[in-house]
Amino acid sequence: MTGRDDIDAPRGDREEGGALDLNCDLGESLGVHRVGDDEGVMPLISSANIGCGFHGGDPTTIRSAIRLAIKNNVSIGAHPSYPDRFNFGLYEVAMPRQALEDAILYQISAVAGVAQAEGARMRHVKPHGALGWLAGRRRDLAEAIARAVADFDRSLVLYAFGELIPAARAEGLRLAADVFAGRVYDPDGMPRTRTKPGGLIEDGDEVVRQLIKFAREQAVNASDGVRIPLPADTACVHVEGPRDVETVRALRNGLEAAGIRIAVRDRP
């Protein structure tokens, strides 16, 4: 299974202009340990994936991030992970299937509950770190995530790639095909990890060109130079570092200069 399978490109917003949702991982600070610049990044994106406390985020941080999202008219989403604060959710944790589903359901419920208390509704779910990365490649993990989301609310949108796409379909979930800004894609349609040599696109202009291609053509030029179809409704623009705001602003400006609308989108 690759990111290309079992999904059709959305109609409209093609070729001449295009539209793309920009999603970013926020609300991941924990106590005095600050991660990213939520206040600076939030006005530049259209969807926020908010940490649920298992890799980052705490009750106060979650509520603050949700309030920022409401203020900036940004879609609110849960960003569940393996229960692994020590490693920021970046490594696989061996868990029984039911325990994993329960952990995901618990995290989704936390963000949704705070959003409700603030008079808003959570719209989407995007798995974090190793959980999301591995679920894109492993059907068992993808099915566990999709089942947990469906058990909570089948009207939620699952941000998905690879094996998560058919898993979402099987549970009757709405989905948004997720791509990654600044990542090289292999010929199988899968993004490389940032730790793999040559996995990152370092040239900011090239990142913008790839995002424009996603928005207009639902395609990407893979590492071998061959153009492959790849569904793209939303693009993850999160970067961890001191220049988060400048990086995201440059990507947004480049897209808008090319006539790409920044807008939340999904498919039935």
Describe what is shown at a glance:
The protein is built from 8 helices and 10 strands.
Structure characterization notes:
The protein is an alpha/beta fold. Helices cover 35% and strands 16% of the residues. It has 8 helices and 10 strands. The strands form 2 sheets. It has a 7-stranded parallel beta barrel with strand order 1-2-3-4-5-6-9, surrounded by 4 helices. A two-stranded antiparallel ribbon has the order 7-8. Helix 3 packs parallel to helix 5 and helix 7 packs across helix 8. The protein starts with 18 loop residues before the first strand and ends in a 6-residue tail after the last strand. The N terminus is likely disordered.
Which overall shape is indicated by the principal axes computed on the Cα atoms? globular
Multimeric state of these chains?
Answer: single chain
- Uncertain runs are 1-15
Provide the CATH top-level class: Alpha Beta
Quantity of strands, as a count: 10
Judged by helices, strands and strand pairing, the structural class is alpha/beta
What is the tally of helical segments? Answer: 8
Question: How helix-rich are the residues, as a percent range?
Answer: 25-40%
CATH architecture level-2 label: Alpha-Beta Barrel
